[in-house]
Amino acid sequence: MTEHVTQLKKVPVGVGHDDFVAVLTLNRPDVANALSASVITELTTHLQCVATDPHCRALVLRGNGKHFSAGADLGWMKEATQLDYDGNVRDADKLIGLFESLANLPFPSLACVQGSAYGGAVGLAAACDIVVAVEGARFCLSEVKLGLIPAVILPYLVRKVAPGTLRYWAVTGRLIATSEALAAGLVQRVVAASERDQAVIEELNSLLQAAPEAQAAVKQLLREVIADGAKQGPYTAAAIAEARVSPSGRAGLAAFFAKSSPSWAIQLAPNWRLD
Predict the structure, then answer these.
(1) What is the distance between the alpha carbons of residues 48 and 45, in angstroms, rounded to a whole number?
(2) Burial code of 41-64, b = ≥16 C-beta within 10 A, e = fewer?
(3) What is the DSSP letter of 111?
(4) Which of 10, 24, 27, 106 has the fewest CB within 10 Å, making it most exposed?
(5) pLDDT at site 272
(6) Cα–Cα separations (whole angstroms), residue 259 to 71, 146, 249
(7) Which residues are catalytic?
(8) Domain span at 93
(9) Residue 8: what pLDDT?
């Protein structure tokens, strides 16, 4: 993995392919690998390409720099505030296409997460079969604090995280530590930064011991017995579009860009008591 990083050029998504393993690297470290419309399109294209490679046995998704991904790019978020309902549906459909391409790969996928993974980045991790997180990594479904909802990523999270825990995360928008993500099933392994590459290699070697046809069949079977995100795509696209054009969605995003607090952000009085 280290060798792959040194070969990255100034491209938003780096691509590597060695020894039956494809490596896709989010490569915008100056903006914490934020997801823009162009990054989503490029990442989707690469995923669709490797999905048809008969020699590929596994995929690693990672972020270059300190963070896996901060989620939505600020410029993309600003553009979304100018879209009407139909425009927001089309915008959400692109993100759904990305998650579907990742979740429906015919071979196992592994996300390597360090630093921050916010919003859509949590969805990327959830859409992967295995998540290896570096100690200190933080996850967050921050959408509700912006007057929005994590509609597009929920179908993928619910495959890994118990509904009660997911409900807690989604309605609070709280930071989720690696230990909590591990206990909930979002993360499968937590390692020190110095042990990250070795941990990923160990997981890949384990995956490469299994029959590719059997792995593909298992993934297909799981899609059949667990709610399929693809089938829920139109509903989730409509839900996020409605949230973006709603008064709270408009107000929340406006407050975010103004670096102010929205009207609903309040705190209990210091002398408040339960009884």
Answers:
(1) 5
(2) ebbbebbeebbeeeebbbbbbbbb
(3) E
(4) 10
(5) 60
(6) 18, 11, 15
(7) 143
(8) 2-225
(9) 45
What confidence tens digit (pLDDT) does each residue in 233-266 have? 676 777 777 777 788 778 877 887 788 888 766 5
Number of domains in the chain: 1
Of 179, 204, 205, nearest to 190 by C-alpha is 179
pLDDT at 24: 96
Q: At what angle are helices 229-245 and 85-103 packed, to 10 degrees? A: 150
Residue 97, domain member (yes or no): yes
Structural domain contains residue 149: yes
Regarding predicted confidence, which is higher, 229 or 120? 120
Q: 250 lies in a domain? A: no
Q: Does residue 132 form part of some domain?
A: yes
Q: 32: domain CATH number?
A: 3.90.226.10
CA 26 from centre of chain: 12
Whether the per-residue pLDDT at 15 is higher than 50: the answer is yes
For tokens 């179908």, the residue is: 155
- Quick one: average pLDDT of 137-152? 94
